[in-house]
Amino acid sequence: MFAEQRYRRRLTDDQLPVVSADPRSHASEPPPRWRIGTELPFRLVLARNPEQLAQAIAVRRAAYAVHMPEFEKHFQAPEAEDYEAGSRVLLALSKDTDKAIGTLRIGTNLHGPTEFERHLDLPSQFVGQPCAYLSRLGVLRGRHSNEVKLALFKAMHRYCLAAQIRYLLIAGVPPRDRWYERLGFVDIMEKGQLFALPSCYGRPARVQWAEVARFESMWRESNHPLYDFMFKSFFPDIEVFSSVSSMWSRPRRRRGDADPVAPLQDSFGLAVI
After folding, report:
1. Are strands 167-172 and 131-139 parallel, antiparallel or unpaired?
2. What is the CATH number of the domain that holds 97?
3. What is the chain's pLDDT, residue by residue, as a tens digit (273 residues)?
4. 36 within domain boundaries
5. Looking at the domain assignment, is residue 230 inside a domain?
């Protein structure tokens, strides 16, 4: 060991290996972009500003004008539910045009009752449970319309899992109710029974539900054709969670306010992110 130390001391500067600080000397081309998963021809985000909400309303109006033209007049502006604390509006944006091509609203009861709880006498299993009311699904006709619809549903499901939602509720106006039935939704009351809800503007609808945590096992056991898309495939263009965690969406703390994360960092000695 001492001989090695004496040898190191005899090394002069001109004998030391030269390490270049210029990264261009090590690579003639930039490294490939790191990308995991399958890319989609669109991005899926949360509407977080008036401009994005306006895009969602425009898609909602155009999509309903095709299948339920009597609804179009009601979608000239955002609805009160779009601004509720428990509401999140998903938005699909085309990569080619950056224009909105799909939307879906998630309304939770975490800050107040949903329309179902206000207007229906729900079975006891739903009382006091975290629920989400899915509504205003709208997708523009196009080459990728089916992918957009499925991606909206996948993003909604992931969001509800993260928000600890137990039950999903929907009001399926025929014939749209059959699509939800194929996904695994069942009637809350008697099968096929129709209800008149304010959000349906006079159109009777089937009130259906599904349990968020049950989708994976239910689709796996039934060998559902969409199982891989929903539970195995990763799509980096579904950016719902990057929208939630961005600095834009965090309320600004006033100067002098305590950092709510600090006690966790002090207790565990780990940075909480």
Report:
1. parallel
2. 3.40.630.30
3. 444 444 444 444 444 444 445 555 445 666 677 778 999 999 999 999 999 999 999 999 999 999 889 888 999 999 999 999 999 999 999 999 999 999 999 999 999 999 999 999 999 999 999 999 999 999 999 999 999 999 999 999 999 999 999 999 999 999 889 999 999 999 999 888 999 999 999 899 999 999 999 999 999 999 999 999 999 999 999 998 874 444 444 444 444 444 444 443 443 344 433
4. no
5. yes
DSSP count for the chain of H helices, then E strands:
9, 8
Element (H, E) at 181: helix 177-183
Domain that holds residue 138: 42-245
Q: Answer whether residue 105 is part of any domain.
A: yes
Confirm whether 193 is domain-assigned: yes
Helix (H) or strand (E) holding 145: helix 145-162
Q: What is the dihedral of CA 110, 115, 119, 120, to 10 degrees?
A: -70
Number of domains within the chain: 1
Report the predicted TM-score, pTM, of the whole model to 2 decimal places. Answer: 0.77
Per-residue tokens: 115: 């329309």
